[in-house]
Write a structure and sequence with these properties.
Layout lengths: L6 E5 L2 E5 L17 E5 L6 E8 L6 E4 L2 E3 L8 H15 L6 E8 L9 H16 L6 H9 L13 E4 L12 E5 L7 E7 L9 H11 L6 H17 L3 H20 L10 H15 L9 E3 L6 E6 L3 H9 L6 E6 L5 E2 L7 E2 L4 E2 L5
Parallel strand pairs: 5-7
Antiparallel strand pairs: 1-4, 1-14, 2-3, 3-8, 4-7, 5-6, 8-9, 10-12, 10-13, 11-12, 15-16
Helix pairs in contact: 1-2, 2-3, 5-6
The structure holds ligand DP6.
Length: about 350
Amino acid sequence: MVETQVVTGIATPNIALIKYWGKRDYTGLNTPNNSSISITLDETVKTTTSVVFSNKIKKDTVFINGIKEDITNKKASEKTVYMKNILNKMRSYSNIKENALIVSENNFPSGAGIASSASGAAALVFALNKALELKITAKELSIMARQISGSACRSIFGGIVKWNKGIREDGLDSYSEQIFPESHWKELVDIIAIVDSGKKKISSSIGHEATVKTSTLYKERPAFAEKGVICVENAIKNKDLDLLAKTIMKDSNNMHATMLDTWPPIMYLNDSSKEIIYKLHELNDSQSNGKYIAGYTFDAGPNAHIITIDKHRETIRKMLKEISGVKNIIESHIGNGPRIANEKETLIDIKNLSPVKKNS
Ligand code: DP6
């Protein structure tokens, strides 16, 4: 009999430089139509997830940001169902069969414009792997995380990460890998300009499918993105900021063009996002040596991620401060990827088998 122990995993979001948009499979495999590349962010933004298995727990129980989610409910959201499936799958590989208590929290507000599903799913599978004593490899964990949320597979690694799209129907060759360690280009920074902290109107899961089904422009996207992957890999290898900036802006614009071409149209960018786009082009075009100093990229939301290097941070911040729609700025460098946390970081009170009470 294994002693009841709490295991806590910490993972961070990632920001895609070449985006994943459009899937081959919509039954929960989340296999993409193109490969993608991302930066795993540092712990400025993170999800902490504690898990414990015990025969004293009557049924699997999950708390996300203080709210109890009924994962056994038939009406549960798609993501919750995927989470339950992965929990059951991982438990089926283990000798530990007891019910689970899972407590997960983000240190950033859910509406901060930073994808919490990626760090959440990565922290969960990372913690489950240890708690269930599975010793699953990182590559396989990325396949597990992908089945909760596609982009989560890239948060299993630190540094610069590539998600290989794969071609197999079972998705076993659709996994992530680190292509450059965090130490390769330490000066690289993501300056996140929050222009709207509200929940997005159309979830990315719905958007992926709608675009593939209805956009004519989308037909060109997978091949375009694959070229972008090669370009970004070279730009990072050579620390070529000019090439990196240009390539990521074109890829973000290309993805958002297919969104607009979706029927009915999907528009995630707002006026402030557009102002950032124009201002950043002006700034880049005013460089005396003609080299771009930063590039924007937007996920399925209006908040800008500006990728630059430390040398240009102040210039970018100054530019953003002059835009009235920018409500907040968050900065994150490249992170190391998930880790098992120490006892102080636990979110579970082992005596009461409940979430720890915060003294606020
Ligand atoms: C625009 O990973 O959120 O952020 O697989 O349905 O969970 P699901 O979608 P999700 O899609 C993210 C898309 C994106 C681009 C990216 O992160 O590559």
